[in-house]
């Protein structure tokens, strides 16, 4: 009997304590960020809208290797390779369906040329679903994005117009194997 | 007719407008304070401080499809949501708000309110039954069990007040508190009544008939649009009725505390009545914000094994003391 009464008193006490503790929250500042009026701080590494960048010389970085399309878990990237007269590869079209993109950033990780990058912009809502499919001209920017100095063709061993084998950075001229006599 | 006396047209219009307005605004006040108590802001975008949120809600509800399920019992389905606001407004009618302010002074005012609260449970029961849906039926079952059992000791808990004031009329009960609020001699009665009042208006934490996380939305699962809106507004009027009843029964109604009376006795009465009611409305919201919903068997055990004995003991002691004092 007394044990039961004690239990009830304890129960009521604990309810009163939680009432009081919740009441005290009225003095706290709200955690809400009033978003459209007040922009939240977006971290530089936030994974948002995807861009295609250019190398420091102003050429398209993307070499149409399709690694991003393979890495994409939802298969929302599609592109077609083509080649210019100097031998550089570049995408003929580069299309991302942002209604399927999950902003995972795997494409950025897969890309060997730092061409595809994710940015902190997240305001990508559209009224028409078709407008969520972005083409290269929508994504290609004039700058280098997050990596300022990287220039794939300047470090790769591939010969293109104006740069032959052995002329890349940190690269030795190719060995003339006929001169390799013992 | 246009003067301040009980039952005049002016009074009726005023009380209806203020009562309905207050319970509608309560929807916004509640959400705002729930926000504050969980470190959020609550609705603050429609109108100044968001106080027109209710209008936006009403527009939303009116625009929604008003769907009557083909498998339901259509007549009862339509009637059920009307019962709740009607009976709750009827119980607003016997409230004494201040000297000369009120719609009717029944000498059985308290019984009238219990009768209306009893009818309100039909709204829940019929709504759930007519929906012809498992979850609605479960909600209706819970609602019926809960409201009937909590009504029992809700009635018993106020009998102490009735003994002390020697009347069932709410106005006389208030007037009997001129030299001391009943909350002091009737403290346990007050506690029991408070718990029962929350359960009676089936608000959190006693919202088992709805129990969103368990049975979708309980008795109003199948309701949409304005029919659901009627259930909701009925619940808020019920909350207002209970928050009026607690000050009337235990906190001296319109009597000013510590002799803080000012000006005209009607104005000061209305002010203090409003202040006390608002306090208890906020308390209802705080309870919703803080406490968790008990299991159904815990609810029943608590009602019958704790609250009922407490109310009975309280009644017994009050009766004994009154008899002893009468000699
Ligand atoms: S972020 Fe992820 S989902 Fe989006 S395009 Fe890149 S790999 Fe695909
Ligand atoms: S964006 Fe990068 S990974 Fe994708 S095709 Fe172009 S170079 Fe390859």
UniProtKB/TrEMBL annotation, chain B:
Q: What is its EC number?
A: 7.1.1.-
GO biological process terms, semicolon-separated: aerobic respiration
Q: Which UniProt keywords apply?
A: Cell membrane, Membrane, NAD, Quinone, Translocase, Transmembrane, Transmembrane helix, Ubiquinone
An example of a GO molecular function for this protein is: oxidoreductase activity, acting on NAD(P)H, quinone or similar compound as acceptor
Q: What InterPro entries does UniProt report for this protein, alphabetically?
A: NADH_UbQ_OxRdtase_su1/FPO, NADH_UbQ_OxRdtase_su1_CS
Pfam families in UniProt: NADHdh
Reaction(s) catalysed by this chain's protein: a quinone + NADH + 5 H(+)(in) = a quinol + NAD(+) + 4 H(+)(out)
Query: Does Iron count among this protein's keywords?
Result: no
Q: How does it sit in the membrane?
A: Multi-pass membrane protein
Assigned protein family? Belongs to the complex I subunit 1 family.
What interactions and quaternary structure are annotated?
Answer: NDH-1 is composed of 14 different subunits. Subunits NuoA, H, J, K, L, M, N constitute the membrane sector of the complex.
Q: What is this protein called?
A: NADH-quinone oxidoreductase subunit H
